[in-house]
Each structure stands twice: as C-alpha cells, then as structure tokens.
Specification:
101 residues; mainly alpha; Helix Hairpins; 0% strand; globular; uS15_NS1_RNA-bd_sf; Ribosomal_uS15
Length: 101
C-alpha cells in the first residue's frame, strides 16, 4: 500500500476545450459565445476555484498566488461592467455562480 500523495489530478486541473464549451454554453448564449461577460466571468470563476485548490496544498507558491489575485481583479472589473450595464444580468450571474458582492 502506497502513501497517498498530495498531487492534484492534472486531467482535472487543465482547462480543456470541452470544459470551456460547457461553461460558455451554460452561462453564455451559445457554446461559441466566448465574448459575453457572463461567460467570461464563469470561466474566471472556474479558474479561480482551481487555483484556490492548488494554493491550499502549495501554500508557498507565490507565483500562483499572484495569478489568483490578477484573475480575481479581472473578474471584479467584468462584474463592475455588467453591474453598470445591466443590473439584472449582474444579479443573476452572482447568484448562479455564488459570488460575493
């Protein structure tokens, strides 16, 4: 019996085109709608969740920590844009993705 390692399953970690299509089809108008704010916010949220899981295991990974902060900032700017343009879409996406205001 081998000891369990803390290694992450890299298949789950990569953002494959199938995962992206699922995210965009669920949160955008179509699977090809990669430009909508909702789709981009959902994609950033997915990436943020993966980086957060990585940082729980690798606490001293400062490069990943910086990347996480940058992604959160990008998502925040998109959320601010959406809030300014269409408050109902903003409320819907934060509720759907369970994002704090």
């Amino acid at each position: 019996m081998q000891p369990q390692s803390k290694a992450i399953n890299f298949i789950d970690m990569y953002l494959t085109s199938e995962v992206k299509k699922n995210i965009f089809s669920e949160h955008g108008k179509t699977a090809a709608d990669t430009g909508s704010a909702e789709g981009q916010i959902a994609l950033f949220t997915h990436r943020i969740q993966h980086l957060t899981g990585h940082l729980k295991i690798n606490k001293n990974d400062k490069v990943t920590e910086r990347s996480l902060v940058r992604l959160v900032g990008k998502r925040r700017r998109l959320l601010d844009y959406l809030k300014e343009k269409d408050i109902e879409r903003y409320r819907e996406i934060i509720k759907k993705l369970n994002i704090r205001k």
